[in-house]
Amino acid sequence: MPVVSGSSEQNVANSLSKIMKMEYIKLEDRKFPDGEGYVRVPGEEIDKIRSEPVILVSNTYPDSNILKTILLLKAIGDVRKGDLSNLKGEEPQKLADVGKGIILAIPYYGYSRQDKRFSKGEVVSARVIANIMSNYCDGMVILDLHEKKVMDGLDFPIIFVSSMAEIADKLEKEVSPDFILSPDKGAISRATKVANLIGCEFSYLEKKRIDAHTIEHTPKDLDVSNKIVAIVDDMISTGGTICRASDALRRQGALEVHAACTHGLFTGGAISKLANHVDGVHSTDSLSNPRGLVSCAPALSRGVKQLLEMF
Ligand code: R5P
């Protein structure tokens, strides 16, 4: 069974194929001079794409990857349907339909934070993207989605997986935290899982977002004096949430503060900013980044196995 991807998800797809003892196939994707994308299933891989179910690893971030994912899914779908008709007259132009069997594994689901209509006139972007993708594949595996509820009621197989076990393992080996902190209520379940796996204390902060760059935490007494604390979140973007939480921990006497997340977006110089506030930053490789040393492939493989059992 092949695991396939375009260029940006090659590493994750390769790791996933090794874990699942499957073959990795790189699909063609490049940009035209005007920035538009081009994708193709290489002619020599067509038989393999048709032989068994296919797992496409593709992010929906940044925006250009949303379109790339749709185009790759459609290219795979056409090949599996046997629609190979082409202007060059390359043979065969038509083959039998081999049926369903396209799984989309999404390491980082872009737009996941627009999961509600916060103001009238807005669109629930996360849901729109799921609706589009569901037209082109037979099931999805999504890693550490910001809020699963956004997919409620979708008549489509989606398996949610998490890298928190691998993050807990990394923190335990390299940081030995005494205390895990969730920087807001949204990350409580993930951070609790990490605390339980490591067997250490846990608490959370109440966060109010003023704008994309400004957040406020409600002051809270935390028993962190002389303790090593790891703040665990689903994603780090500007780093504002982590920096503010770390400042609160330092004021209360924390000995060391580390940050861990599944999705390291690290926008606008976040890594340098974080270096002034925390002792270490740990992330998975769901997005390519310099701190992405925890593989997200084991979590994706758990979801793919679960989904395959449903087919
Ligand atoms: C929001 O609820 C998320 O879980 C993260 O806490 C947030 O997106 C992090 O963003 P930033 O790094 O910009 O504060």
Write the layout of secondary structure elements.
Layout: E1 2-5, H1 10-19, E2 23-26, E3 28-31, E4 37-40, H2 46-51, E5 54-57, H3 63-81, E6 102-106, H4 125-134, E7 139-143, E8 158-161, H5 164-174, E9 179-182, H6 188-198, E10 201-204, E11 207-211, E12 214-217, E13 228-236, H7 240-251, E14 256-264, H8 270-275, E15 280-284, E16 292-294, H9 297-310
Parallel strand pairs: 1-2, 1-5, 5-6, 6-7, 7-8, 9-10, 9-13, 13-14, 14-15, 15-16
Antiparallel strand pairs: 3-4, 11-12
The structure holds ribose-5-phosphate (R5P).
In short:
Helix content is 32%, strand content 25%.
Description:
The strands form four sheets. Strands 2-1-5-6-7-8 form a six-stranded parallel β-sheet, sandwiched between helices. The longest helix is centred in the N-terminal third of the chain and has 19 residues, at 63-81. The protein is an alpha/beta fold. It folds into two domains: 2-162 and 296-308, Rossmann fold, CATH 3.40.50.2020; 164-294, Rossmann fold, CATH 3.40.50.2020. The protein has nine helices and 16 strands. The structure holds ribose-5-phosphate. Residues 113, 183-184, 186-187, 215, 233-241 line the site of ribose-5-phosphate (R5P).
Strand percentage = 15-25%
Helix and strand run: EHEEEHEHEHEEHEHEEEEHEHEEH
Q: Please, what is the average pLDDT?
A: 96
CATH architecture of the largest domain: 3-Layer(aba) Sandwich
Biggest sheet layout: 6 strands, parallel
Terminus-to-terminus distance: 14 Å
What is the helical fraction, as a range of percent?
25-40%
